[in-house]
Amino acid sequence: AQAVAIHAFCANLLRVSPDARLVLMGDMNDGCGSKTLDLLKGEGVLANPLEALPKRERYTYRHGRRPATLDHVLVSPALRGACARVPHVHSNACAPAASDHDPVLLELPD
Predict the structure, then answer these.
(1) Type and span of the H or E element at 62
(2) CB-neighbour burial class of residue 13 (10 A; exposed 0-12, middle 13-18, buried 19+)
């Protein structure tokens, strides 16, 4: 229900302002391709630049030895082509420090 509500908010905002620069990022506690994440993204509303990374680099968390992507960054169409890089810093998932999740970064050009 929360994913549907957030998606509806983003879709309505983009209907009013198609060039809106929206970024949703953080621990979504769900993997790429999950029903909930797909509901949140919707058809052509939000995209996940992390999905462009090679599969072996897409993890942000390790459950035992299994890597998983629980943290995401979603962007609106106005930012889709502007994403300069989505560097993935594997600093915590391999050797937890302050968190057991890796940070998710998004670099946008000026």
Answers:
(1) strand 61-63
(2) middle
26 three-state secondary structure: strand
CB 101 within 8 A of CB 94: no
Question: What is the spatial distance between Cα 5 and Cα 40, in angstroms, rounded to a whole number?
Answer: 8
Helix (H) or strand (E) holding 16: helix 2-16
Most confident of 2-6, 70-74, 84-88: 2-6
Q: Is residue 84 very low, low, confident or very high in pLDDT (cuts 50, 70, 90)?
A: very low
Q: Is the dihedral of CA 98, 65, 35, 106 positive or negative?
A: positive
CA gap 93, 88 in Å, rounded: 11
